[in-house]
Give the backbone structure.
Amino acid sequence: MNRINPLHIIALLIVLTLFIYIELGKIKSELIEEKKSYITSESIAKELRSYKQFYGDKNHVQRALQKILSQHSLQKAKLKTSYTKQGVKIESNAIDLYSLNSFVSKIFNGAYKIQSLQIKAIDNKNAKLKMEIVW
Amino acid sequence: MILFLNFKQKVKRLFLDPELTVSVDSKEKYQVVLSPSLYWIKRVSLPLKYVHEVKKIAHTLFEEILPAGNYNYYVYKDKNEYFIFAYEDSKILSLLHEKGISLTQIQGISFAQFALNDLNENLRIDEERALCVEDDIVVLLPAVWFKDLKEVQNDTLKVSQQTITLEHFSHIIDKKTLYTIMVFLFLFILLLLGEYFYFFKQKEQLKSQKEQLFKHYKLKPTLMQNRAILSSYKKEDLKQQKLRKYINYFLKANMHTNEKIISIEYDGLKLSVELKGVKKSDLKRILSLFYKEKIPLIIKRKNKRSIVEVMI
């Protein structure tokens, strides 16, 4: 009577089937989670890259700012720039309203992180400007 | 020092017959010998070479002989002849249960044919029946036909190598169906395993793709860190957009020639705009865009000047 009963083998196979079936369910849900995680990571990565390119790229910001400052319309304004590790400070004790308008609109339309801003009218034609841009 | 000695347990023989009472010790192991009343036997010469071939056709050889029931067959080859046994597993199992013999106590089950085939004298098993060998086949005959019969002794029964294995559910489900189920289950398991490894591989591939994605975009090691960085970028972006929008609202304001903006100040948190020549009653007109969007404002009046503060 020591021979293995085929019913015992069937029972074992059923248990094994159930076990693998449960494990299969687990791995399926793990795969779905992994897919979700991949899609989320990809979208975060792309968003982060665009933000980094927009605000965090120091060289890009410097080059673009230099281009604005070297424009003919702003030459008269004699804007003083002082660069720090975190950003740049732009100052003018007397900037005419035309140049001020041109400069501010260019900065506002560009990807610059404005940390602080001070514009004070001196008279009807000139104003005082202080601006700090960070990266 | 304690010396452990292993004694080989002696297997007792037990003659099993529906009519006989047996005394069973639950600690003992038994070699069960089936009485001829528990099986049918046929000796045939067939043009077949192998036992398994005979086993396949065994049921046809007993057709119209056996009473209705679920029979199993055992075939034994002796020279050119085959001894074919037909027995009912369920009948033997229920008899063993009836006699109080547990299956774990059974070392083996054989037929009286093998245990008594070299019987030299007839043996009495009870008042009415005797075991005899007729034409090389062990049979039960009426005891009254013989004189001076010896009683059958369990210990004198020969232990045979020819044993059978009882099938518990053979009366419900036959062997072929059982094997079919087994094969089906086995194939199903293989299929499930295949699917499991396919998903496992996919998961691993996704993991490595994710690692490459992290490397390519130079992301922080955890998704949580990256989410936090992204959220700070979004916050800052929103702040910058707000600053530009609010300043634009002041610049676009419907102002008269005597009304002027004399200063704009932003410290990272708060935007303050100082207006000159604006009456308190005119502030609603100038700040209409803010009121339209219900943006909270703080308005201070100082020397006929208005200071409008808005949080960014």
